[in-house]
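A quick aside before the break. I want you to see a complete sequence-to-structure record at least once, exactly as it would be stored in a machine-readable document. Don't worry about memorizing anything.
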Amino acid sequence: MVQADSLFVNYDRTAVLWDVTFSVPPGVLLGIVGPNGAGKSTLLKTLLGLVHPLSGNVSLSTGKIGYVPQRETVDWDFPITVLEVVLMGRYPRLRWWQRIRAADREAALHALTQVGMADLADRQIGELSGGQQQKLFLARALVQEPDVFFLDEPFAGIDLAAEKDIVQLLKQLRDQGKTIIVVHHDLPTVSEYFDWVLLLNTRLIACGPVAEVFHAENLRKTYGKTSPLFEEAVGLSAQKQSGL
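That is the input. The structure line, written in tokens, reads:
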């Protein structure tokens, strides 16, 4: 479903991604994890075509993709309603002369219902909580009916209840055969949230099923022995394997 071959990405003269090669099958929920500055968001944007690699190739087996950006990239003071933002996801379906149709509004309201926000359709986006803002852009992705979802740090700055709601919805989409790729920062929840994990620190450390690649040796290569995140993740991984 998603494949990268020998990706090299530089910002000026600084290497951000170095010879990254992997493939992701359809119908998995994958987390991209690594330390700050590891190139996680850059990798996601390269897969989307928003960043052009110095060399290497990206292949998607479908053109139907949905993207949920980081919340801080959005102007939340812009005078636009929740429903209007979700309807943006329908624009690619319209000819340049066409207006939003009743079917588009129905699809947008259905997407808002899926994320539990149908009653906020007329709310200005700046009035939403952090969790609601994240669900808003997930609804915009849903209304595009994509085969692959890309989410950049969707759990940053939101409360635990909203995070669990989003994870539950992502798992439902996975069960429907969708492929979902998420930039994630919280190592202790990797085993709970994802089927697959991609460990990255400028270069690819490992990519595969969580049960196979999310272990102490790969975490050490990704984070280093002195990282508190490494120690916490190794402890939780050991508990998972022992069934505790």
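Two observations worth writing down. The mean pLDDT is 88. Strands lie at 2-11, 14-24, 29-33, 55-60, 65-68, 148-152, 179-183, 196-201, 203-209. We'll return to this after the break.
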